[in-house]
Each structure stands twice: as C-alpha cells, then as structure tokens.
Amino acid sequence: MPGATWFTDDEARINHFLDHGDDFGITDDGDYQAAARKFLNADRAVETDIQECTRSNGDIVRFNALTNKFAIMAVGTAIRTYYKPMPRHLAPLTYPPYKPVHDFLTNPLYFEDNCAK
C-alpha cells in the first residue's frame, strides 16, 4: 500500500483540523496531519485492530473499532480525512453542529457502508 503523505493543501489540512482535531485532543494542525499519516501508514500486521478496505475509486478507508479512529486516503496518497465518527443517536445535545454524524447504529456499520462506495 502506498503511504499517506499530507492533505492536498493547507486549507484542507486546516479545515479538517478545525473540524476534527479535538476528536483526538490535538491542538495543532501539523500534529493533526502527523497523527492522520501515522494511522494511515500503520502496519496492520502489528496494529491488528485496524480494518481496511479499498473503495471502487481506489480510496483506502481505515477504521479501528477500539479507538474509533477513521481515515480515508486518496489514490494518490493524499489524506482526505481523519476523525472519530459519531452515530446520530449517541451524539450528546452539546455535540457541535458542524461535526458530522451518521445514521448507522454503530461505527463498524458506518465503516462497512463507506467500504461499499
């Protein structure tokens, strides 16, 4: 598998960091990108809890059900996103409205749906 490198541009990195950095307690966009890269490049033979699939367009999708980390890497090794998915029915009333939620019962089902794309 080719290794994840970075977001496509500074704006994408900063916007994703602003939306999702707090999912991981990360306070710097560079650290957020480094964490995404580390997750996407992790050796699955060692990190056996990471599930992976390849979408029909070639994107690599990774998910760890123990940590709820979810990331997508484009065909050309660019990082598309990195976050912790949230089922709508579990989102607290204080959950920020700019953060995405999904309508699946569990995050593993959300991952499976993303793999089918």
**Arithmetic mean pLDDT:** 93
Proportion of strand residues: 15-25%
- End-to-end Cα distance, whole Å, is 19 Å
Give the number of helices: 3
Largest sheet: 4 strands, antiparallel
Strand arrangement within the widest β-sheet reads 1-2-3-4
pLDDT under 50 segments (min length 5)? none
Account of the 3D structure:
With 117 residues, this protein is of the alpha+beta class. Helix content is 28%, strand content 17%. The protein is built from three helices and four strands, in the order H-H-E-E-E-E-H. Strands 1-2-3-4 form a four-stranded antiparallel β-sheet, with helices on both faces. Helix 1 packs across helix 2. The chain is globular, with a radius of gyration of 14 Å. The model has no long low-confidence stretch (mean pLDDT 93).
Summary?
With 117 residues, this protein is α+β, with helices and mostly antiparallel strands. The protein has three helices and four strands, in the order ααββββα.
Properties at a glance:
4-stranded antiparallel β-sheet, alpha+beta, 117 residues, 4 strands
Q: Topology, please?
A:
Elements: H1 10-20, H2 29-41, E1 50-54, E2 60-64, E3 69-73, E4 79-83, H3 107-115
Helix pairs in contact: 1-2
